[in-house]
């Protein structure tokens, strides 16, 4: 059983959610009188809208909690260009058809307001659906996936701003009144964020011996978020952006974030998400499509929505020099709907800004049908381009130290955590180079437990401290990681896998593929005792390491902790120079280790020394070997291969020297003999 704390999920079906609501709604089963009475009682509308509000608060807070804000800030320019490209084109199309739609649907009221509503319908991108769809199709951690999610957030914010304008049509506030209310809302949001930050720090310090927050503490945090969101809604402002900001600014380190992330991920993805987006399909009523001109209006809105996103996004991708296949996928992802657009239509009708039920139902039908068309196309494009979308494995030998490094480190117990932490700190390089480290806690699931436990029981164990799976180790690992985050201000993503040793390597390799990691670091199957001798750990650890080495698609390293290293937090905050030795014997594995030293050498507290070992005596090619003439070709082939390896080694060292000679890097040529080194040792295999 694999339990992810990241954006990946274990099943598909995001695009079936509106379709399920569509079947239950007035367009499907609710045509029957008995079913219609059950679903559409007198209090049903208020109940459904209140439920949708609570669902929306949970979804947007979780989206902010899981969002890679550092990626968004690093790539803000391309994200804004892609989002604005589609939104601008859809806004132009909405302005062009607004008068025609106003006349044909018999709408009354402000034409400008109707144009704003059509703009939201055409331009909005449902960021939660994009996030979920990218996670289900396993490309959420790729560059194209993160770019799509970030761009969809900008599109959602654009739609929310228009929603605020539409909401203000009823209240008719003056400019000064709007400015005052906006200022008060901003103060409230900032105050809640500051209060939540201090509350989280206080909760993290309480009961350090417990792995998760208690139920009362979780309810306290959720209540603060809910009250803040409801207050903003009462003041006349949508809480969508506010909930996202509260989630994105929530302190990542500590058991508070871990507990909320685990609980909300399970609850939202299995219950709240299907209900909320199923409700968007539930509201569609195709009985209004009883005239040809109404069908033409729906088709026109769908075509202009998809066309506007395609034209605007492809133009932005052409400007950014993004490949065409990625641009097409981005364009269809930007057309996912069913979030702010449905809310805007509902708000306009409830506030009596729009009075045409025909317009309302036609637009809802267009939104739902557009999503039902777009999502399967996205799935088809992702599967067709699965070999090209996202980053392929690039060996560390060719990996630029200026690019983002995704690293997966694994631990079975508390012992190697400090050494792993120090190693990650050393790989951080310069401060402006991104790194995404993951720490996977590998927990053995005994065969008896495996037979007697269900998936539900294993999910419930995540929220309990009464576990049989090394709960003490989990608490100590969490505490060490929390100290590391506090000292270095760098986020580390924690993952837990519970599996028998016979299949544990599959979880490691599968997760490494999902996050597109560049490197996997495994702990050695022995640990050093106080007297300096090595003691074997469980036999399954060694077999797991061997299977990962054989099956992983990326490079794999084995980290041996010799017990002479400082803790990760001391290394992170220390001003002392860290001495690092690279032993280079030659071959592809040593060249991969040399690629690792690129990152190590750029760290301002590291000094790297490369020892190249050369043979002391070179024997003649045929000395001591009695071969016939028929075997001369074999000898020549072996010699040629050795020459190629030596040339590759020399070329790699020369390139490394010429590029990093200004850093603290020393080169020594040594005779092939035995040297004794203390400290952590890293064995690398490409």
Structural overview:
Residues 20-383 form the Cation/H+ exchanger transmembrane domain. Belongs to the monovalent cation:proton antiporter 2 (CPA2) transporter (TC 2.A.37) family. CHX (TC 2.A.37.4) subfamily. It comes from Helianthus annuus. With 686 residues, this protein is an alpha/beta fold. The protein has 25 helices and twelve strands. Helix 13 crosses helix 14. It is elongated, with a radius of gyration of 29 Å. The two termini are 28 Å apart. The relative contact order is 0.11.
Brief rundown of the structure:
Residues 438-566 form the Cation/H(+) antiporter central domain. Helices cover 59% and strands 10% of the residues.
